[in-house]
Amino acid sequence: MKLAVSFDGQNASASRQSYERLRELVAGDLNKVNQVVVDHLQSSVTLIPQLAGHLVSSGGKRLRPILTLTTARMCGYEGGRHIDLAACVEFIHTATLLHDDVVDDSALRRGSATANAVWGNKPSVLVGDFLFSRAFQLMVADGSLEVLKILSDASAVIAEGEVDQLMISNDITTDEAAYMQVIGAKTAALFAAASEIGAVVADRDPSDQAALRTYGMSLGIAFQLVDDVLDYSAREADLGKTVGDDFRDGKITLPVVYAIARANDDERQFWKRTLEDEDVRDGDLARAMELLERHDALADTMARARDHANEAREALAGFTANPYRDALLELVDFCVDREF
Amino acid sequence: MKLAVSFDGQNASASRQSYERLRELVAGDLNKVNQVVVDHLQSSVTLIPQLAGHLVSSGGKRLRPILTLTTARMCGYEGGRHIDLAACVEFIHTATLLHDDVVDDSALRRGSATANAVWGNKPSVLVGDFLFSRAFQLMVADGSLEVLKILSDASAVIAEGEVDQLMISNDITTDEAAYMQVIGAKTAALFAAASEIGAVVADRDPSDQAALRTYGMSLGIAFQLVDDVLDYSAREADLGKTVGDDFRDGKITLPVVYAIARANDDERQFWKRTLEDEDVRDGDLARAMELLERHDALADTMARARDHANEAREALAGFTANPYRDALLELVDFCVDREF
């Protein structure tokens, strides 16, 4: 099937290269973060490092810790605090993934079996709690109440966003504003916090902190919108998850919000049956993708993603140009053009 | 059925009175804690206060926040920080209850339907995360890194204990030492932290902090052991949960550890079938209770509880006598003699 929004092979390849350049730029720091993560997964309860290690080592993009590392470096920070704090961010992210996979009953993440699929829901819930606690222990050891405030606020907002997402699940009357509020909380809040921390460790003034917060928030929203589009278009091997997961779960995402807003009666009945009643039959995913194309829903979602990407770029305008700033700008391109 | 360890009606009634005197003594503070809890449950996502409020208002004993309030007062503290910190302790406790009930698939707590039974597992997991985050936001607002360290350490240990408990579940080879490690972590760590915080806000020296930590730890272990005994003997209406829950869940508790250690081959087969294979048939609970009686398993567990209760009392020896110290001593009696 040809999609209205086709991912241009060249853009995607360029985007992957820009992501890899960024990873290269912070490779030394990132290796240290990985070491901190591994060290702090240790527990006398052997299932904890086993289960958490499964997810941590499954090859995530490490975008959130990379944000902390890169923003700190862009701000000229030369100490070591950003390493531990990037690990905190990764711990919080991993905890939310463990709980997400339980809540969504997911079997596959990043192309591997989820922890809940391997070990069951119970240890996934509890190991998530452990990782969350570890994040706070690391922050306490770092000793900054400002960082603790940023990340405890973000954690509360993420949980609110997750509950909110559960509320709009299967609700085909969800509008764009309600959806944007959900993803601002469940996804973008941690991008924002991760980026803001870079300015905090570098002791930058409040306006620079706010600018990096805006950068992270806008990037996070763009990232999530592209995720929503990829769920209806990605090649499974690239995304490491099954195409159509959101559809089968009755998840409301922006492409669907647009398609429903533009639906005729017959189409509305289709969305009601599939998303609201979760009565999904053979051929329904193909029809959903056809309707998304007919109503330009994926293309328009990509346009919204690009708007937020532009806001992210603009938020960096006040910072002196250096390789880290370039990398953060390229990261915006990656988030929009990525195929994984 | 008559149990080897019968709860003496007079003791139980005296114990309930001593608990009620303690609640009366800190009633003013406790009302303020309840207000802080209610205020901080607020969220634009309406399910959050609804679900969390269901549990918070279901009439728990509030033992953990009462520990913070009473230890602070015993140490002569006259400020207001102990109110917010007691609320933090209650938030962390409530978060673990929500996750526990999901992990145990419980339908009843304190005589009411559990949150997961009413709203399902998904929001229970996520609202637990929210409450946990709220606890840390409150601690950050309080501003003490020392308190943050005590409670983030406790949270990590609790999660480890919960995973550990899952590991020994259905494992009839579990010995007393392994079991004591589990309950030291999953239950007593929060009692210890809640009590220690009282000394911290009152700015007492490290030895007083350590003494209150020991008090809480010993009290928590005694409390949990009595809980284990009550599960095989309590009147349902008093405990607000079903008698025999632990048995039907294949949970290993100290009474069962003792009974298995003293079992003949035939009895061992019974424990293997019921606890390990979870093949529980009509009449099995009655037989389990009979075996616990035959081997003095409940009486010996109560003896261990009394040992720890004595340690808790001794930990208070260094503090000047005052009504709060008396109340903390009475609380030990309550925890051992309670029927609920």
Structure notes:
- The first copy, chain A, is mostly helical.
- Chain A contains 17 helices and two strands.
- Chain A has a two-stranded antiparallel ribbon with strand order 1-2.
- In chain A, α2 crosses α5, α5 packs antiparallel against α9 and α16 packs antiparallel against α17.
- Chain A is globular and about 60 Å long.
- Chain A starts with 8 loop residues before the first helix and ends with a helix.
The largest β sheet of chain A comes out as:
2 strands, antiparallel
Provide mean pLDDT of chain A, rounded.
91
- Detail the poorly predicted runs of chain A: 1-7
- The beta-strand count of chain A equals 2
Q: Which pair of protein chains has the largest interface, and what are the residue counts?
A: A-B, 42 and 42 residues
State the end-to-end CA separation of chain A.
Answer: 19 Å
Shape of chain A: globular
* Proportion of helical residues of chain A: over 70%
Computed CA radius of gyration of chain A, to the nearest angstrom: 20 Å
Number of helices in the DSSP assignment of chain A? 17
Write the H/E string of chain A, N to C: HHHHHEEHHHHHHHHHHHH
Name the structural class of chain A.
mainly alpha
Oligomer: homodimer
Order of strands across the biggest sheet of chain A? Answer: 1-2
Report the β-strand fraction of chain A as a percent range: under 5%
